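Question (not urgent): is this output format expected?
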Amino acid sequence: MDYSAERTEDDLSQIADFVGSWDADLSGMGDDYADTELYTVIGEDGHGETYMDGEKTADYSAYAYDNGDKDDGKGIYVAYSNLTGEVSHAEYTIEEKDG
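Got this back:
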């Protein structure tokens, strides 16, 4: 994939569900992270930033691919670091938070 290419409308539409501010659940990370606040902000242009305890820790371009049943809230999330050029990816599932 060419991460230096201009983002297309179709490309950006794939991250529409990710636009906004997202809190990370660190409850499974042990006592070292019990009081840690981690969140991500993703804009409509695909630009993402991650913050840990208020300090920016990542600056990246976000990509998402719905590679299974369409609109099931699951797929592959890709982050291209704007600082290092490294690519990381993970499976995602979008769920509504109660309360």
